[in-house]
Specification:
- One of its GO terms (molecular function) is heme binding.
- It comes from Enterovirga aerilata.
- InterPro entries: Cyt_c/b562 (IPR010980), Cyt_c_II (IPR002321), Cyt_c_prime (IPR012127).
- This protein is mainly alpha-helical.
- Helices cover 76% and strands 0% of the residues.
- It contains 6 helices and no strands.
- Helix 1 runs antiparallel to helix 2, helix 1 packs parallel to helix 3 and helix 3 runs antiparallel to helix 5.
- The two termini are 29 Å apart.
């Protein structure tokens, strides 16, 4: 099941440019659903709720990397509202910062993937990588 969710998330990220042209808000939502599923798996491993599995940990980071690679491209001016979006106007007001956050996140994810060898290294890497999530959400997401 996890691999299916992660595979779907990666597929959405890779084919997102085509889909985004027709419905970028739905594309954003689907990518974030994949990231959310990956985060749940990572959190469960870190908390010891499920056994640590290096392959699963790397899949979590791959899902993040796919999102970081192109997520910021799914915010055209025509998709500021509608579709139950929680995207804040600040995204369009400060595109350079929004994009820079994803570029920095991608570097953090790459470093996390390189250092993840066991539960302890994943715990440290996962904590570092997920800090960027809340920082970006606090600035660029409307709280519902």
């Amino acid at each position: 099941m996890l691999r299916s969710v992660l595979a779907v998330a990666a597929l959405v990220a890779v084919t997102g440019a085509v889909v985004a042209q027709s419905d970028p808000i739905e594309t954003r939502r689907n990518i974030m659903k994949g990231v959310g599923a990956a985060t749940r798996t990572g959190t469960q491993m870190v908390k010891g709720e499920i056994s640590f599995d290096l392959a699963k940990a790397q899949e979590v980071l791959k899902t993040y990397a796919a999102a970081a690679d192109g997520f910021h491209n799914h915010f055209p001016p025509t998709a500021k509202t509608g579709g139950q979006t929680t995207a804040a106007p600040a995204i369009w007001e400060n595109q350079a910062d929004f994009r820079a956050r994803f570029d920095a996140w991608a570097k953090d994810i790459q470093a996390a993937a390189a250092q993840t060898k066991d539960l302890d290294s994943f715990r440290a890497a996962f904590g570092n990588v997920t800090k960027a999530c809340s920082s970006c959400h606090n600035t660029y997401r409307i709280k519902t």
